[in-house]
Description:
By secondary structure, the chain is an alpha+beta fold.
Amino acid sequence: MARDFDCPYLGASVELTDEREAHIAGEHPELLPRHLDLIGVALNDPDAVYPGTRSANSRLFVRWYDDLAGGNRLVVVVVSDLEPRARHWVVTAHISGRAIRGVPEWQRQ
Length: 109
């Protein structure tokens, strides 16, 4: 059953399909299923949003958590398809201890 997360930055909901959830759980078992709720928080209230590096229609939603693996960033990669209708969906998510490269398109002040 796909999940939808509210994303004020995009002004829309972001879909996490069963297939993408299984991908994240398989590739990043330290994240899912235990921290599924943190994906929703990162989309709803990110610390920063960066343009994606692999696709012009992707963005990285980044949020720092003091208690996530000893203090790390959660990075949620969202793809936005605008045609034939607007759809925003999570392609992957992972925990990162490294700073995100590049200039954010939005950052919490």
